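Q: Could you write out the predicted structure for this multi-component system? I'm mainly interested in how the pieces pack against one another.
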Amino acid sequence: MTKTVTRDRIATSLCGFISAGAIALASVQPGFAEDKPELRIAAIVSVTGAASALGAPERNAVELFDKTWSTRTDLPFKVKVISYDDGSDPTKAVSLTRKAIEEDKAHVVVCCTTTPSSMAILDTVKAAKITMISMASNAAIVEPASERPFTFKTPTSDKLMLQRTLNYMKRQGIKKIGFFGLEDAYGEGGLKELQPVAKEVGIDLAGTERFARQDTNFTPQALRLKQAGLDAVYIHAIPPSADLAHEALKRVGFTGPIYHGAGSSINAFVDIGKANVEGAIVGVGALNVYDQIAKDNPLRPVLAKFAELYDAAYGKGKVDLFAGQSWDAMLLTVNAYQHMAEAKSDDLAATRIAIKNAMEQTREWPGVNGVYNITPTDHLGLDKRSTFLSQIKGGRFVLIEE
Amino acid sequence: MIDTLLFLLVDGITNGAVYGLVALSLIVIYTVTRVVNIAQGEYVTLGALSFASALSGYFSPFSWLVAGGLAAFAVLDVADRRLSNSARIRMLLIRSIWIAGVLATAFAANKFPGSYWFAVLAALAATASLGALTYRLTVEPVSGASPIVLLIVSVGVYMVFHGAAVLIWGAEPQSVPPVVDGGVSLGPVFITYQSLWICCFAVLAMAGLYTFSERTLIGQALQATAVNRVGAQLCGIPVRVAGQLSFSIGAGFSALSGLLLAPLITANYDMGFPIGLKGFVAAALGGIVEYPTALVGVALVGLTESFSAFQISAFRDVIVFLMVIPILLWRNAVRPPEAHEH
């Protein structure tokens, strides 16, 4: 008997607490009506999961954007950022995208960190007619633009990066290379891009080996590559597995140069690999080497400003390429919203389409990743000005002058 | 050709040693408590992560959490009305020493950042205690339930641990320095000292477990519980304590494998699950009850993984996990299920 009474009392007090909490929360919401229209951007980033090394800086940049833009009062509109974590899981990315479209009434979805997640939400955004800006590298996300009218992306494509890397290899006298990459969509995408580029440049792709992000041993594959008699190995992965693959190659006595794709162009690559990755040649974006590029490069002021903002918030020297992916996505959105042709109405569907049309009018817009020239047929809009090669020297990305 | 073989052999054995520790912990837990512990791999993760943070001198909230949990259960246990006063005092004393042990190792690691042994002790103490806590919290209330219930419970535990690891340590991988940098070249094969260290430690730990269960009274009590739960209870063996102990040993062993492996692959919150599954494949060869057969299984899994990665790297995990099917067929043929039901 006493037990039920206690239980009742607990239940009553719990109810009290919850309703008090609900009232407190509700009263935090601004009570007055705002006249300014609101631009709602949903950022879905892989803060956890296998791609967390990339997602963490992306989330930082989203927060930075939120802090600097949503408090601004000098704009003719307000900015609201809705931030989610897809856990590097494509299924979760899809459901979060739906949530952002239907419940949060977002105007733009910035998603996703990984290629698999980005590919997974393509149909959802196309059906909802909402602009999506991906932060993943694979070109297949935006190509062909006729089939993916609402999809854009900020990172330079694997293809541009591979063209630069392989041309450099060729000049170094490398004739025979091996591919060592992740076995997921990111790695497979890299391989698919590598094959035609290698043929075009005239380099022989003589071995392909795969590994998974959670593998504990990379030596067997590395041995196989070593025995193929290669001049160089190209690793297409992200840290930490990119580091581990690199170490395994060295361990089995592979002495040729080891190249990395843009997945490794992140500070975590050096932090994890330390002295083991010295000498690695990494395809990077302008942000990795922003203080080393030519003074007259149009990107330099944009990069310096972002690096200063980011480092002030997260510590000196912390800025890296992946923070730039989400940053560019957010700013491209704002830019498109500002240049929207149609009147800013309350019509959500019309605004979504207007933003998409404005995105396609982006001309010579300097971002952190490069200069964007987005057209209805080219939804990436970057050219070879967005790619650089660097070598790890003394724990830093050092620009290779070509 | 011969050096390739040697390389693969060395790697297969190193990985096998890691899986071996996990397989043994699965067996210890299964035989005593009948829990097929899906969460076993998470102890590997927790061991590696708490080791990484202890080594960097960061006092992780993990040790506090574990100590707090222990204290809560100590209070609950002591409040038991059926206990005599002297039993209460003894229990309180044991629990206090236990809690003090967890905190003391954590503080020592915090005080001497970079000291390998303190970090190992702190990680092992915290994770092993977490094993006992997990038993107390999740298995004891449903003890005697069917194995499938216990299995589902362990799935829940897995999810909680997985999320907690992200919450406490974040999602970024942490690099862990090896005990001794570098390695030794045996002919054409370069073996890192860490690999040798892993094998050494694994053998020592297994020998320790063997001596413990054969030569000590507590070990024999555990064995008795494993053979026949009811009989052991009738003989005066406290089955609850046996369960807690087996979970502690299991968690400690897995944590050990995690902190040994961490320098080779970095410590991250995602690392444990596949290792747990591979340990499971190895343990399945011994029906999750026989230690020696499980060790054969471990060598088999490690070597299969290493050689299949060399031959067809795209299919190596498929091959390792497919091994379960012939293993189960073989076990059913050799020893039909009725024969080892107690």
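A: Regarding packing and overall arrangement: The longest helix of chain A spans residues 2-28.
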